[in-house]
Amino acid sequence: xxxxxxxxxxxxxxxxxxxxxxxxxxxxxxxxxxxxxxxxxxxxxxxxxxxxxxxxxxxxxxxxxxxxxxxxxxxxxxxxxxxxxxxxxxxxxxxxxxxxxxxxxxxxxxxxxxxxxxxxxxxxxxxxxxxxxxxxxxxxxxxxxxxxxxxxxxxxxxxxxxxxxxxxxxxxxxxxxxxxxxxxxxxxxxxxxxxxxxxxxxxxxxxxxxxxxxxxxxx
Amino acid sequence: xxxxxxxxxxxxxxxxxxxxxxxxxxxxxxxxxxxxxxxxxxxxxxxxxxxxxxxxxxxxxxxxxxxxxxxxxxxxxxxxxxxxxxxxxxxxxxxxxxxxxxxxxxxxxxxxxxxxxxxxxxxxxxxxxxxxxxxxxxxxxxxxxxxxxxxxxxxxxxxxxxxxxxxxxxxxxxxxxxxxxxxxxxxxxxxxxxxxxxxxxxxxxxxxxxxxxxxxxxxxxxxxxxxxxxxxxxxxxx
Lengths: 219, 238
Prior knowledge:
By secondary structure, chain A is α/β, with parallel strands linked by helices.
């Protein structure tokens, strides 16, 4: 069922300790900062977080990591010039890291939303990130078996929602939003604008409302 | 393998016809200009973070090149300045960029399907090492205290039809980055097709390493620096 909520606090209230949480965004573009802040305030801990990165600077996901709420990161690029909170936790052995090539990360998320049980991909074949994984030669190329990444909750950011929960995004802030919305059992979208049903051109909708459970407008 | 004997091979008459040369090593911008010149008109191209990004400064409008950025865009324009800066419009290096007419946006799974599906003509990447058969190492030093980060490097190396590497030929310690076999953890097997360095342009593949151009050195001098057999590229330089 689709809910329109007044506050980000209400939107994230149901997130339990130990949940797997997908968080949209590539760098700061598309990162749902207000929902992450609310998750931080809500106190849920022992989380597994799926994001491309592992937080930048002193905001958003970086703070969730700093406060020790994240047990495990599944990401492609944790190390950045300003990923000091992740770096500190990682070096102290206080956070687990599953490092996934970016395209495999995206496809594993997509597979979860699409009901695919796993897939073979050439990306990573012969590298240390494929160690221990099943491989095959298919179409003459070495390929690695990868499994879907499911989540309890997705926190995403979109530009506009309509009354049916359909979403459109803005420029490269789209990034992981559409695939995370489909992969999670419960998808929470923060949007800049809500328009009545019929206010978005059906031809232009990127995420159909069937994938969206909660919407909160953030100024 | 004997470097000396290969060096001698390289001096035989008729074998050097494919080699062009200049008197001095190339700077970073000269190298970027050279890569840009070599990209065929109409290509779809992904430029990796760092030195490869410089290539975009030298693409001519007549080449009609479409740039892909893996965070979800085709038709990327130059770096944004001043009032153009928009936090929702960034490249893979998280730098604000602009969009060109005809640009399109798509989600991450589609963006990597564009790569993995073989739709990109060329990607240009930096590297720590490239092996004689085109194995690429560019994501991890393997140092025990290093925090590993891979991003889209493996997807790009595996997916693009041609993988061009841009790097200095030698490390700060003077070791060749073109090696018999990579000692750093690899990014992809046999994926690199060309290596653009300050001292030479190399073509790599199953048949070993060919030299297309040299800059500020002879093929013999180059062979003394590189621990794999080098031969001159065929005259068409392709």
